């Protein structure tokens, strides 16, 4: 008898889930720290997301696909009155981040290690001040474009959870994805592109620390692009 086909549990905007075997310390952090910081999507969120955090915060910021967490850790240290939600389905990236978080206060951090669309659908309306989508998987082959995270459905999700005037930052070194994102955001009534001069395309965000992926892209001759959008 043929086993019935199972529906996908995620929308599969990310690629592989695992890389090299974790070190003993990374595995320990995943066991000990992840359950404490992980969002519980089975429980309805408070209408005020600031209550997610043990420390008092004024703003809530979401980073989707934070990799090893270099940018997220920098922003946490830079913004002591902001609470952060980080989503990263790649196990090795989450483990690296948690190892670093163990050395810093974790009272302004919550994480999720699966599909970011689940978090977006869980969040209350107009609850997020800022969304970062930095160097997402470009899915460069046309037959894979449907797996790019920027699409009409996810922009609808961003529009719902962002507060009016909230920010959406997108960075990439892949020309086709940059054009793709500009085109999709231009067609979406909720987003305004904030560039006013040609140089704005290639001007890093304020306080930008750079990432290892970005350094690699520059070495290989690809020019980073930083797009800024506002929720209107």
Automatic annotation (TrEMBL):
Belongs to the class I-like SAM-binding methyltransferase superfamily. TrmB family. Catalyzes the formation of N(7)-methylguanine at position 46 (m7G46) in tRNA. Substrate binds at residues 141, 173, 211-214. The keyword DNA damage does not apply. Keywords: Methyltransferase, S-adenosyl-L-methionine, Transferase, tRNA processing. Pathway: tRNA modification; N(7)-methylguanine-tRNA biosynthesis. GO terms for cellular component: tRNA methyltransferase complex. It catalyses: guanosine(46) in tRNA + S-adenosyl-L-methionine = N(7)-methylguanosine(46) in tRNA + S-adenosyl-L-homocysteine. Signal peptide: none annotated. It holds the Pfam family Methyltransf_4. The keyword S-adenosyl-L-methionine applies. This is tRNA (guanine-N(7)-)-methyltransferase. Its EC number is 2.1.1.33. GO terms for molecular function: tRNA (guanine(46)-N7)-methyltransferase activity. PANTHER family: 3-DEOXY-D-MANNO-OCTULOSONIC-ACID TRANSFERASE/TRNA GUANINE-N 7 - -METHYLTRANSFERASE, PENTACOTRIPEPTIDE-REPEAT REGION OF PRORP DOMAIN-CONTAINING PROTEIN. InterPro entries: SAM-dependent_MTases_sf, tRNA_(Gua-N-7)_MeTrfase_Trmb, tRNA_methyltr_TrmB_bact. S-adenosyl-L-methionine binds at residues 63, 88, 115, 137. The gene is trmB. CDD domains: AdoMet_MTases.
